[in-house]
Design goal:
about 300 residues; alpha/beta; 7-stranded mixed beta sheet; 11 strands; about 15% strand; binds magnesium ion
């Protein structure tokens, strides 16, 4: 009788021991993996910090005085989602993202006010729409309510990104023309237009994309072709006509793109002699100046 009781007790203790062992193993595995993650995060943070520090040390106030960093060497960081949320918290009204854009606004405005541009003929700014002028919450796109427009039908209105909207408005006061080139499809033309109008921006022209954002070269080709015609010519062209434009007009009234602004590299790079302003996006939350293949972080 006692023997039987004793053996049952032993079996129960043995089972408890096994359960405890399993729990200990699970706990160890969890702590090891957690440490690994936090180490890799802190490493990537320290790397990006040292990169940005090395960039800032060599910065100067002049746009042309950029550090010799080639675009290919920029590493887009895969940021943890909570870091993205922290960066965009309060957007598009306040927070780190908006503070960063205010610095962009200030530097760009100083650049546009330069004496060398004051009497420049055909001076133009090319600008993107989504997450440049209008806020679409890029890390988790929002679907704002559809509104009815008397002429244009269903329209979706986004919130303005104020620092960039202010930059565009001030640029217009300084005599710059504004051309919007968006990767949105042609069916979004009027939506883009009514959004701009609601923000108080009346672009000289809006070009949409027949590639619906699937062609990385689209905007670069459009910018190159714009530089070979006058603003009046451009106003009378469709996106497809401009994209396939082969002519060249030698006129002092040709479009003179001084600056191109957007949140993707395809919005800014590739064309010589104009200042590219690359705004933050979730995969890389820095702003950059890009000029003739060289870049610097805007801090
Ligand atoms: Mg965009």
């Amino acid at each position: 009788m006692y023997k039987k009781k004793y053996s049952v007790l032993l079996i129960i203790m043995f089972r408890i021991l096994i359960i405890l062992l399993v729990l200990l193993i699970v706990f160890l595995i969890f702590t090891i993996s957690f440490n690994k993650n936090s180490n890799s995060n802190s490493n990537s943070n320290s790397n990006s910090n040292s990169n940005s520090n090395s960039n800032s040390n060599s910065n100067s106030n002049s746009v042309e005085n950029m550090k010799n960093v080639k675009l290919d060497s920029i590493r887009t960081t895969r940021n943890p989602f909570n870091y993205i949320l922290e960066f965009y918290r309060g957007a598009p009204y306040k927070g780190y993202y908006i503070e960063n854009l205010k610095k962009v606004e200030k530097e760009c405005l100083n650049y546009l006010k330069r004496d060398s541009f004051s009497n420049l003929i055909g001076k133009t700014i090319v600008i993107d729409f989504d997450d440049t002028i209008g806020w679409t919450k890029p890390y988790k796109p929002i679907q704002p309510e559809v509104e009815k427009h008397r002429i244009y039908g269903d329209v979706i209105h986004f919130k303005p990104i104020k620092p960039i909207v202010n930059l565009v408005k001030n640029a217009i006061k300084l005599g710059y023309h504004i051309i919007v080139i968006t990767a949105r499809g042609p069916h979004m033309l009027y939506q883009t237009m009514t959004n701009c109008h609601r923000f108080g921006i009346y672009p000289d022209k809006i070009f949409t994309s027949c590639f619906y954002g699937q062609n990385q070269m689209f905007k670069q080709i459009m910018r190159e072709n714009l530089s070979r015609m006058t603003l009046n010519d451009a106003k009378n062209m469709t996106s497809n006509q401009l994209l396939n434009y082969k002519g060249k007009k030698d006129s002092i009234y040709n479009i003179n793109i001084v600056m191109t602004v957007g949140d993707r590299w395809c919005d800014v790079k590739g064309v010589i002699g104009m200042l590219g302003v690359k705004l933050p996006e979730p995969s890389d939350m820095n702003s950059y100046f890009y000029y003739n293949g060289e870049i610097r972080v805007i801090e």
